[in-house]
Design a protein that fits this description.
By secondary structure, this protein is an alpha/beta fold. It is 46% helix and 11% strand.
Length: 492
């Protein structure tokens, strides 16, 4: 188990910070998002090279799809290698141009397609070849090819994710590790089951599922091959997609070709068939996001909406095969929402057994949003008869979560003990489907066992009010900009 604040972790984070500080000196790199994008394509090539080194040890006949001169070991490892203008010329006019058009043929066709897909959306922003050489030298000092390096890589990855969040990605909140681990533990994906995250971001759910199946079910080499073929994901945005592919490589997925770059919602629902269905879906779809014009037309008339999280819930019901299991993170809004949201919930409760809703307290996604969230667990094929709720409390002595005091996996131990033999207690209760129908499918049910604590702390209420006001302002501004763009028409 990783020890918080261990020396390698601190050294790795310090190295990443020093790399970003170097990039800040470069005139071509502007802002956190661009710095991360610049760093990640380098990180991808570094991880790929370490991954290929392992492949070569296992298979003497392994041949990289990259031309030898473009492999990380050939141009990046030598600190006395290309620098200044010659390095910039090599990166811009050879490395990028060649990898964007890398031919996919022979035994390495699949990994060649992955590399080409990564570089189709990548670009070099740095203007100083001297600074680039310094960045490459620092990055090459990080070792990712040994099992003992995994914890360090995990720390670096979380640092990148934190920076990515700070850079601002409206509607997207990267899921805390405790939440992804708890969801995977309870859904329990097994060997041979197809696992999908249709909005996979940087791959948190998928890597957690990989490690879960390896730890519990993989016993033989053929089991590993089965696992490798069973993991798939789709990500809409280029940078998280690149991070996800890198993450898959690092977690031993030899050819992460099942991680697609695209919008899962862009395919008409009627086009999905039995061959597209999977056994397990785990995801945290962007909430508060609004899809582009026309996407809603891919869904049945009664279920059309432009709200991203709602559409993903409808999609999950389609992609899950009978008996399949799913879990996702959703904000409170869909629980009490009316109109289309009511029809979506009615469809869910008729087609699936929504057996559990874990209600998380405010602040789990702090400092990025104060929105309250829920974990919904359901199985497709039988209608819901009753829904169990579990209200997750703050840890003793705490009234909120923060960046320095996040939700921890150990806090889910009471839920795990309660899960197999459910009984009502101070945190859990069940509601019959008849009562839910009578409420107009409003799933926003309060804990009947909770003690009334009065109006609450004035400072906390004021902070919550300000957070809610800020969220409302973001939505209003987004709608205003969207309306303005629609009225002005396309720019010429």
């Amino acid at each position: 188990m990783r020890r918080e604040g261990s020396a390698p972790a601190l050294e790795g984070r310090a190295r990443i910070k020093s790399i970003q500080d170097l990039m800040r000196k470069d005139a071509g790199v502007d802002g956190d998002a661009q710095r991360i994008s610049q760093l990640v394509w380098m990180l991808f090539l570094k991880v790929l090279d370490d991954h290929e080194a392992e492949q070569e040890l296992r298979d003497s006949g392994y041949k990289s799809p990259l031309p030898e001169r473009l492999r990380w070991r050939a141009w990046a490892k030598n600190p006395e290698g290309l620098t200044g203008e010659p390095l910039l010329d090599f990166v811009n006019n050879d490395l990028f141009k060649t990898l964007k058009a890398l031919p996919a043929k022979g035994k390495s066709a699949a990994i060649a397609s992955v590399v080409r897909g990564v570089f189709e959306d990548a670009s070099n922003s740095m203007k100083s070849g001297t600074l680039m050489r310094q960045v490459i030298h620092k990055l090459d000092g990080l070792g990712f090819h040994k099992a003992s390096d995994r914890h360090e890589f995990g720390d670096l990855y979380e640092k990148l994710l934190a920076d990515l969040q700070s850079a601002g990605n409206a509607g997207e909140y990267y899921t805390p590790r405790a939440v992804t681990q708890f969801i995977i533990d309870q859904v329990d994906p097994r060997l041979g089951e197809k696992v999908l995250d249709p909005a996979c971001g940087t791959g948190g759910f998928l890597t957690c599922a990989i490690e879960h199946v390896r730890r519990r079910y993989v016993r033989h080499p053929q089991d590993e091959a089965t696992l490798q073929a069973s993991i798939s994901g789709v990500e809409k945005k280029p940078l998280p997609h690149l991070l996800c592919v890198t993450n898959m490589l690092f977690h031993g997925i030899e050819v992460p070709s099942n991680i697609r770059h695209g919008n899962t919602l862009a395919r008409p629902l009627r086009d999905y068939g039995p061959e597209d269905q999977v056994d397990v879906i785990v995801t945290n779809p962007p909430f508060g996001g609004v899809e582009e014009d026309g996407i809603e037309a891919h869904f049945p008339q009664a279920l059309r909406t432009r709200e991203t999280a709602d559409l993903f819930l409808v999609l999950m019901m389609t992609l899950l095969r009978d008996g399949g299991r799913a879990a996702l993170v959703l904000p409170d809004g869909i629980l009490f929402g009316e109109g289309v949201k009511t029809r979506i919930k009615e469809r869910l409760l008729e087609a699936c057994n929504l057996h559990t809703i874990v209600r998380l307290p405010r602040g789990v996604f702090n400092p990025y949003t104060g929105i309250k969230t829920n974990l919904l667990f359901f199985t497709k094929g039988k209608p819901t008869r009753e829904v169990w709720y579990y209200e997750h409390p703050y840890p003793s002595g705490s009234r909120s979560y923060s960046k320095t005091k996040p939700l921890r996996l150990e806090e889910f131990q009471p839920e795990k003990r309660w899960w197999p033999h459910r009984q009502e207690n101070e945190h859990s209760w069940k509601v019959r489907i008849e009562d839910i129908r009578a409420r107009g499918y409003n799933l926003d049910l309060k804990n009947p066992h909770a003690l009334e604590e009065g109006p609450g702390d004035a400072d906390a209420l004021l902070r919550q009010y300000r957070e809610a006001t800020a969220e409302a302002l973001k939505v209003r501004n987004a709608l205003r900009d969207e309306l303005r763009a629609a009225l002005e028409g396309p720019r010429r």
